[in-house]
Design a protein that fits this description.
9 strands; 237 residues; disordered N terminus; 8-stranded mixed barrel; TIM Barrel; single chain; alpha/beta
Length: 237
């Protein structure tokens, strides 16, 4: 993700109603294009992104317990108007406050989930520290505990498990390649290249692959690992 900012698990099974018609061409595809953005993108042409084939966007909402993205509201409204499935993400600062505190801050500032069929569960962006020690000065055990504090708090408040965004390298180094979350939180894996590469942490595959740090209509390119109907099930719960 653009700092300060990304597999579908087998449990996606509930129905969904969505305002945009499901085109046969999109439904036949095994992947769905999306993207993620923050205030760095400014004005985004969401309708053109939709017309080009994008069907979802993940938008930065918060960071730590003090920062709210100034473009979140306008981005969220624009994505909704363009019929994109959308959700918020939180950039983790594990050294500054507890996972529960940051989850509650995220929930209070746009990171919640609703059963409207167009809202993705929130995403925890946990990755390389942009301004200090790679693992924020935490041991692998302490990092796993911090993530669990965030994830469990989010789930308790929404009934949904948040997405977890990371890289293979960071996850191995900073969590000891923990598999604790592989049965609950879908993985959003960042790797810029021709394939997702090694999947960390016991996840069988990635739900979303952040495959490039540029996208035609702004932000990073994201590829959902499934058909549009499965993406809609993820939004539904």
């Amino acid at each position: 993700m653009k700092l300060p900012l990304l597999s579908l698990l087998p449990f996606l099974s509930l129905p969904l109603t969505h305002t945009a018609p499901l085109s046969p061409e999109l439904e036949k595809r095994s992947t769905v294009q999306g993207f993620d953005i923050s205030h760095y993108q400014g004005t985004v042409d969401f309708k053109s992104a939709y017309n080009s084939g994008a069907r979802f966007v993940i938008i930065k909402a918060t960071e730590g317990t003090t920062y709210t993205d100034p473009s979140f509201s306008s981005h969220y409204t624009g994505a909704t108007s363009a019929s994109l499935i959308r959700g918020g993400y939180h950039f983790a600062r594990p050294s500054s406050s507890s996972g529960a505190s940051q989850a509650n801050f995220f929930l209070a500032h746009g990171g919640g989930w609703s059963a409207d069929g167009i809202t993705l569960p929130g995403m925890l962006d946990i990755e390389y520290n942009p301004s200090g020690a790679t693992c924020y000065g935490l041991s692998a055990a302490a990092m796993v505990s911090w993530i669990a504090d965030f994830v469990d708090t989010y789930h308790a408040k929404t009934g949904r498990w948040p997405l977890i965004y990371s890289t293979n390298g960071w996850w191995v180094e900073c969590t000891g390649n923990s598999a604790r979350f592989s049965g609950t939180s879908p993985l959003v894996l960042a790797r810029y290249g021709s394939s997702p590469g090694t999947i960390p942490g016991g996840w069988p595959y990635q739900t979303i692959w952040q495959n490039a740090d540029t996208y035609t209509y702004g932000g990073d390119s994201d590829i959902f690992n499934g058909a549009l109907s499965q993406l809609k099930k993820l939004a539904t719960g």
